[in-house]
Amino acid sequence: MVNKQSYIHSNLDIVGSQPRANNIRLNKKETNLSNADILGSRPDCQKFKTTRKPCNPLNPEYVLQKVDFIQAPIPRFIRDSIDNTDISGAQPKKKREMEMRDNYNVNDIIGAMPKPPLVRKVVHDQVY
Hints:
The chain has 128 residues and is largely without helices or strands. The chain has strands at 122-123, 126-127. The chain has no helices and 2 strands. Strand 1 (122-123) and strand 2 form a beta hairpin. The protein is elongated and about 170 Å long.
């Protein structure tokens, strides 16, 4: 083994005859790209796993959800932030209701009305 061609002019056995390495490698296992610490992240084809209990498929038993209703607490009254009655001018003005004007009435203008129709008096079936 010592007679190999790569050992002929080698000084590997002399301490300090070679430059020292800058990055000394630690004998640590690199786990930065590993997912071994996460359960279920690797395939496990050995056995079938389930969390369901065995039941009769012809008469299945279903576990329905249950709800407990909780009475909501009544919040205490601090202040009404929408009420602005104490600020002057914050309320809308009262609407003034006026009577509707009759624009087509011309009774007050002389001559603007048609003459009344002629009414004839009937006396004993005679027309005068």
